[in-house]
């Protein structure tokens, strides 16, 4: 990660969850719709993310759509937003030891 | 159903109608609970403990379903069912665990009732694989076959399965509770790192009895189990265990999840006080209700009657010819095959640790093959080991070469049981929601680095165990070399311990020095091995013995000298 990247670390956040019926990792996209690909996830300024999270979480839980709903840090690498932590990178892509599995196998990982 | 014709197969406990009805009722109960969750009648907070009681976790990518393999023993029919479920509902593979169970990683909540229904068709389930209950009791994977066996641990593990299932006092314990039983001279079940570890023995009259070790465990606070009673007669087996669980239920720390295991209770009360409490409870309990009826024991023992072994000479000419003609087979024979109590038979360990592979993973094709091989060569039965391998326990020596050729062709012929390539690794951050670091890539890199089978045998017995967090599912505390993954400001680091021992001489490893990066870790392991080879007194001196003799200094010096 470059110094420029490090300076941007934590500046944006995305919202994620697991879909209730199948456990699929999902992200809050534009217009409040849940999407399966991180590339389609909406990014929120750090200061605003929690304000978006609360109603999205309430709605997703009320509709039995998703569980374990939370925000995570996003950074820019080479001009592309990617999750800041290894944990979230793995969730957005799939196991690093099985590239044939998870979103990475379907072209749904981070761009 | 896996109804096995008596006398034709190796011993598998046959469920009776009570067992089947109970499992079927639990499946239907869970089906309704899932419906209620999906319809919103149950909140996640209400549903979570229910799904956990049915072995269903939510992990990073999907739900994970943990299937119970009671004491690690199953039939070929059951393995085929696990394979079929893996294909139909998961992604074509399964992961064998250190509790001798199997996990699927890509399960859908909405499919789970159907999966449990299919499992029930072969007398399997996911009960007691999660939650604060008595978990699947584990035992020696060579049980019923090992030449050094004194008592058959399956019999008592099955008694505990029956005793603990739906036991009202054991359903809401302060925390999960793990029991292991070993009935052989060698401990292949790691009994002293369990909440209760049982060593089955025989007295001068030939009667079976048990030494009870209590308060062992790994995780955040590792402890070696302490001897609470040297001898508990068979008739008092369940009474003594119940006494221990009652004391735990009464005094266990429900206020703090990090202090809730019985190991903390034993540590905080002290062995003397804890033992006194157990003995007092035992004295109250002892009586007709809790006396284990010998007829019940004999009835269960019948299920595990030896398979119809042929009368064979112990020496096999066919085996010796194959050994002489094929060095790779000869190596596998030397490393993965153990002595059987019946002349002319042997115990074969099927390694699920190919060089560069994922420890414990097996594809559904591999599971089907092993099921076929179990039918053909081992009376239709197999075992899962706590080091994430499989075992065919009753193979004719004459047929070992045929068996190995088929295993080898399917990538299951690795000759590394007990060697440096036989690594225990938890799923780590690639799958697990609790992990801080990945375990599997490091296991793959180490096993690839030490892939040469000759080098592995030169190194000899050396267990590497890797955990991706302090919960220690990869048993790193008792690895001769243990590795703990930690997260340092977003970067994975690995803390190395040395000197752990999971056998009867149980020991918790010592931290060697500061944590290292993933790349450095592989080099560090190689450096440790090099120091060992340079310092061992002769080829028979094991790594942990050399370490005990020369101390940590030469190892530290090699790894951290440049710092």
Give an overview of the whole structure:
Chain A has one domain. Helices cover 28% and strands 29% of the residues of chain A. In chain A, strands 1, 2, 3, 4, 5 and 6 form a 6-stranded antiparallel β-sheet that branches. The longest helix of chain A has 17 residues. Chain A is globular, with a radius of gyration of 14 Å. The N terminus of chain A is likely disordered. Chain B has 563 residues and is α+β, with helices and mostly antiparallel strands. In chain B, a hairpin with a 5-residue loop joins strand 14 and strand 15. In chain B, helix 1 packs antiparallel against helix 2 and helix 3 runs antiparallel to helix 12. The N terminus of chain B is likely disordered. Chains A and B meet through helix 3 of A and helix 1 and helix 14 of B. Chain B: InterPro entries: NIR_SIR_4Fe-4S, NiRdtase/SiRdtase_haem-b_fer, Nit/Sulf_reduc_fer-like_dom_sf, NO2/SO3_Rdtase_4Fe4S_dom, NO2/SO3_Rdtase_4Fe4S_sf. Chain B: This is Nitrite/sulfite reductase. Chain B: GO terms for molecular function: 4 iron, 4 sulfur cluster binding; heme binding; metal ion binding; oxidoreductase activity. Chain B: Pfam families: NIR_SIR, NIR_SIR_ferr. Chain B: Keywords: 4Fe-4S, Heme, Iron, Iron-sulfur, Metal-binding, Oxidoreductase.
Write the layout of secondary structure elements.
The complex is a heterodimer of chains A (111) and B (563).
Chain A: H1 3-8, E1 12-19, E2 25-28, E3 34-35, E4 44-45, H2 46-62, E5 66-77, E6 80-83, H3 86-93
Antiparallel strand pairs in A: 1-2, 1-4, 1-5, 2-3, 5-6
Chain B: H1 17-39, H2 44-53, E1 56-58, E2 63-67, E3 73-75, H3 76-89, E4 93-96, E5 102-107, H4 112-120, E6 138-139, H5 153-164, E7 179-182, E8 196-202, E9 208-214, E10 226-233, H6 237-251, H7 262-269, H8 271-285, H9 294-303, H10 317-325, H11 327-336, E11 337-339, E12 345-350, E13 361-363, H12 364-377, E14 381-384, E15 390-396, H13 400-409, E16 424-425, H14 440-449, H15 453-459, E17 464-467, E18 481-488, E19 491-498, E20 510-511, E21 516-517, H16 518-535, H17 543-550, H18 553-560
Parallel strand pairs in B: 6-7, 7-8, 16-17, 17-18
Antiparallel strand pairs in B: 1-2, 2-5, 3-14, 4-5, 4-13, 8-9, 9-10, 11-12, 12-15, 14-15, 18-19, 19-20, 19-21
Helix pairs in contact in B: 1-2, 1-4, 3-12, 5-9, 6-8, 7-8, 10-11, 12-13, 14-16, 16-17, 16-18
Keywords (chain B): 4Fe-4S, Heme, Iron, Iron-sulfur, Metal-binding, Oxidoreductase
Organism (chain B): Azospirillum oryzae
Domain Nitrite/Sulfite reductase ferredoxin-like (chain B): 63-122, 359-409
